[in-house]
Automatic annotation (TrEMBL):
Occurrences of domain Nucleoside diphosphate kinase-like (ranges): 1-132
InterPro entries per record: NDK-like_dom (IPR034907), NDK-like_dom_sf (IPR036850), Nucleoside_diP_kinase (IPR001564), Nucleoside_diP_kinase_AS (IPR023005)
EC number of this enzyme: 2.7.4.6
Catalytic activity: a ribonucleoside 5'-diphosphate + ATP = a ribonucleoside 5'-triphosphate + ADP; dZDP + ATP = dZTP + ADP; a 2'-deoxyribonucleoside 5'-diphosphate + ATP = a 2'-deoxyribonucleoside 5'-triphosphate + ADP
Protein name: Nucleoside diphosphate kinase
Length: 143
């Protein structure tokens, strides 16, 4: 999910380009204004943390781009493409490392495990919003 800061800063294309160029397949995408309820559910794991209220307010403050990407090892690989939570310690070459300076404005969210990804896909998308397709370049990406 490209967070409000990523959308406001015009980095939607940049983020999509990096995932496409890596070889992952986009199977769902929508720009949406997030309700407080959805933001609270999405970050439920952090509900006791001091930053929770501010995080929920931020995520629901301006549109985000929610996406589902498919491919071998996509969850772990996406976390690497995204970089460490704090953009100041994220490696250059990662999205947060290249474009961010603040932990509360770190541009993008990525599911942290396959199970979490499944839960989050169900939370953010209906089945009709997901496409099942094989890009013609697949044989050039996988043995
Ligand atoms: P995300 O869930 O957004 O993909 O980020 P993450 O896994 O790298 O980090 P996580 O620990 O899940 O934290 C969720 C988001 O909360 C904000 N945060 N603020 N002020 C703080 O100390 C603090 N710590 C975390 C960040 O925006 C982080 O992405
Ligand atoms: Mg997280």
């Amino acid at each position: 999910m490209i967070k409000p800061d990523g959308v406001q800063r015009g980095l939607v294309g940049e983020v999509i380009s990096r995932f496409e160029a890596k070889g992952f397949t986009l199977v769902g995408m929508k720009l949406m204004q997030v309700s407080k309820e959805l933001a609270e559910k999405h970050y439920d794991v952090h509900k006791e943390r001091p930053f929770f209220k501010g995080l929920v307010e931020f995520i629901s403050s301006s549109p985000v781009v929610a996406m589902v990407w498919e491919g071998d090892g996509v969850v772990a690989s996406a976390r690497k493409l995204i970089g460490a939570t704090n953009p100041l310690t994220a490696e250059p070459g990662t999205i947060r490392g290249d474009y961010g300076v603040s932990v509360g404005r770190n541009l993008i969210h990525g599911s942290d495990a396959i199970e979490t990804a499944q839960t989050e896909i169900n939370l953010w998308f209906s089945s009709e919003e997901l496409a099942s397709w094989q890009p013609t370049m697949t044989p050039w990406l996988y043995e």
